[in-house]
Design brief:
alpha+beta; four-stranded antiparallel β-sheet
């Protein structure tokens, strides 16, 4: 004698639950329930349904994440094509090069190439290029580069024009094989006049 109750009632309830969770597409109120050859217990059937729901939830979450990522890329592309509207806002463009053979000669050659090919472009408000400071060795200093290129552009469009220019492409062609690594940092910045500032020589 089964003290737990009537098994056929439990199976019937499970099937109704299954039908409510998985209706036939396009036929409201009608359900397709395939009775398995093996009759599962109430506990086993509940676990199967729970597993199926978890899988559907995982797929839904993944789809949502992909949509958000796609929207993020689309928004970035639109934002990149628009110059900052705020008065006094500029675009800072900082590049840090690590060389395969960081000899003094190789470092100076790259600095000279930066000055020759990258300094004279429309929209460049500030330009500087140089090597890692040997004296800057505090725990906060990042020292995994050899040459730094610091530029400030009048707006985003000026940076895009610079990146597509023949001189910039030549700089890459002339020096790319010497690079061990390159990191680029771009930021929208506000210009503030400094009494102690001076023009680059």
């Amino acid at each position: 004698m089964h003290r737990a109750g009537r098994p056929e009632i439990q199976v019937t309830q499970n099937l109704r639950t299954f039908a409510a969770l998985f209706p036939r597409a396009g036929a409201p109120g009608k359900f397709v329930v395939a009775l398995p050859v093996k009759i599962y217990s109430a506990a086993t059937f509940a676990r199967l349904i729970k597993k199926e729901l978890a899988m559907k939830k995982s797929i839904a979450v993944t789809a949502a994440v992909l949509v958000l990522v796609g929207m993020s890329y689309a928004w970035s592309a639109v934002a990149a094509d628009k110059a900052p509207a705020e008065k006094g806002q500029l675009l800072s463009h900082s590049v840090y090069f690590a060389l395969k053979e960081p000899t003094p000669e190789a470092k100076q050659k790259l600095v000279d190439s930066c000055k020759k090919l990258l300094s004279q472009h429309p929209g460049v408000v500030y330009f500087a290029a140089g090597t890692l400071c040997d004296e800057a060795k505090s725990p906060l200093n990042v020292r995994d580069f050899d040459v730094a290129l610091l530029m400030v552009f009048s707006d985003h469009e000026a940076l895009h024009t610079y990146a597509a220019s023949a001189d910039h492409q030549k700089f890459i062609a002339d020096n790319a094989t010497t690079f061990k690594g390159v990191r680029v940092f771009d930021a929208d910045v506000d210009y503030v006049a400094s009494p102690g500032g001076h023009a680059a020589k």
